[in-house]
Design brief:
165 residues, alpha+beta, 4 helices, 9 strands
Amino acid sequence: MKTGVADTARMADNRQAGGQPQKEFTLTTDRSENNEVVTQSAITQAAPSTIADLPEGVQSIVNVLDDRRAVDVVVLDLRGVSESLDCFIVATGESSLQLRALEESVHYQQKLEGRLPRGVEGPSDRWVLLDYGPVVVHLMSPEARDFYDLEGLWADAQRVEVTPI
């Protein structure tokens, strides 16, 4: 009869609706000297991402979008759900003129900071995509944002609170 033999089961990356990591659950089963099963479990809350965890440029992009009055700016941390993407920033422009102004402002600020886009898709009256490598910016009309529902498509991604400064 063995003493202290442990079997451990882990369930990690359990997610709630909205993509927030819910809990990590650990279950350990030990057998005591008289072969009784002793079970211990622990449930811990996963630590949320912060702006400090995100790639360079995210804060300045959020600041520019706020300055240009973008609507409903959302930052998604994709590192836990994608091997090739780190971060999406999704924002709504309420007109084609505002979408153009948002695009130009983000591009200008990133250029000042030494970051040039790998690519730009659009511009169009509905959606502009700015690819800065680890950070991809989606500037969308309200109709395009509702139709494509990127936040729903990437529901497993963690939302990060980024306050404009």
